[in-house]
Write a structure and sequence with these properties.
406 residues; alpha/beta; 8-stranded mixed beta sheet; 21 strands; 27% strand
């Protein structure tokens, strides 16, 4: 952070009640909530519009999150096009075990790739609701966050001019490596957990090989299958942390996927060209608190939940609903309770999802750990899941996000 009060070569400053740094699901949802309430705001994004609308990311959205988008007029395309999932399947020890969480709870998941949601949100914010947004900005800096008049400066990519924007609040929605994280004061607490494993994240130009999400629990390592569209499937393969994706040839990838996701009585996976291949080192972190003066963090800027439990985009939307509504209440009616309680309300769900991610990691990775004790407890958890109605109901609540307080 720079908290200076000198902004040379910035020209006449602009002014917005809220500046949002980052045009991901959190930032764009906040922007849309503000614009719907008639509150002016400015979104700053270092990437181009084309890039953020195509960047491959998550695709599983929990039902409560979709209803939140729907209530705010942001789910029309999603509701029309998303797939609905009511079951998942665990494959281990050569067998397959179907888990029908829809029957247990009456709820389901929506599968809608994040790039499509971002495209919808950008269009609604910029093209329909007339929100101000600057793409491709450089040298973003935050100033005077501990005062009642913070500001944000940036370099305009078209003119090369240094711009200064005065505001009342800054929403930091630019991820773990964004400028808002570097602006945190020394007293910020960041709790981190490293799983000590990597996942090879893959997108295959191949139709899904099952009608639900598949979890392969195998001595070679975890494998996952998640539909993204009728033509594209997301796969994951457990691998060493920091592994080079080039170590994984087309042939090796599909050999491991077929083995780790294989089960008696199931056809082989439908193979196809790999259009994305990158290694994710599995770790989580949580920033506490999520507010620092006039800076409010949301999404991955505040917390990361590894894709183990498919919770990241859902947490980002939860933050955005709370922060957007709280900013509207404060700027429109002077109500302070929402902003005052924002961090605590967000962190209740954040820590609930963190705990579930850690629990599920043991299920996914215990058999491949080389530790006989962990492998034994993994199978105990899986057996309990399919023999105890109470255990099944508890898992379904956490998997769907219905157990966490909103």
């Amino acid at each position: 952070m720079t908290s200076t009060t000198s902004h040379a070569n910035s020209g006449d400053p602009q002014s917005f009640p809220v500046v949002i740094v980052g045009a991901g699901p959190a930032g764009l949802t906040i922007g849309n909530i503000l614009r719907a309430a008639g509150v002016d705001c400015l979104v700053l994004e270092i990437e181009t519009r084309e890039f953020i609308e195509q960047r491959p990311r998550a695709g599983v959205i929990e039902e409560w999150a979709v209803r939140g988008l729907e209530q705010r007029g942001l789910a029309e395309n999603l509701l029309e096009r998303a797939q609905l999932h009511t079951e998942c399947e665990f494959r281990f020890a050569g067998d397959r075990f179907r888990f029908s969480y829809g029957e247990l709870t009456g709820r389901h998941h929506f599968v809608y790739p994040q790039p499509l949601l971002v495209k919808d949100l950008v269009r609604e914010y910029a093209d329909v609701r007339g929100g101000e947004i600057r793409f491709g900005v450089r040298d973003v800096r935050l100033h005077d966050l501990g005062t009642d008049l913070p500001s944000v400066s940036y370099t305009d990519p078209e003119t090369g001019q240094h711009q200064l924007v005065q505001c009342e609040f800054v929403a930091g929605c630019d991820g773990a490596r964004g400028v808002t994280r570097s602006a945190l004061p020394e007293h910020a607490q960041i709790a981190r957990h490293d799983y000590g494993i990597g996942w090879l994240a893959l997108l295959a130009e191949a139709p899904p090989s099952a009608d639900c999400v598949l979890f392969g629990i195998h001595p070679n390592g975890f494998a996952g299958h998640m539909a993204r569209s009728p033509q594209v499937t997301r796969y994951y393969l457990e691998c060493p942390p920091g592994d080079d994706p080039e170590n994984w040839s087309h042939e090796r990838v599909w050999e491991e996927l077929q083995q780790r996701l294989g089960a008696d009585g199931t056809p082989p996976l439908t193979e196809g060209r790999l259009i994305e291949k990158r290694v994710l080192d599995m770790h989580n972190y949580v920033v506490e608190p999520m507010t620092f003066g006039r800076l409010f963090l949301a999404g991955d800027a505040a917390h990361l939940t590894a894709p183990i439990a498919a919770k990241g985009m859902n947490l980002a939307l939860h933050d955005a609903f709370l922060l957007g509504d709280s900013l509207v209440a404060y700027l429109g009616k002077g109500e302070e309770s929402g902003l005052d309680g924002y961090s605590e309300a967000c962190l209740r769900r954040v820590w609930d999802y963190q705990e579930f991610s850690q629990w599920l990691s043991e299920v996914y990775h215990g058999t491949s750990s080389g530790d006989e004790y962990r492998a034994g407890t993994t199978f105990a958890r899986l057996r309990r899941l399919f023999t105890s109605p109470a255990a099944a109901a508890a898992f379904a609540e956490q998997y769907l996000g219905t157990a966490a307080a909103y």
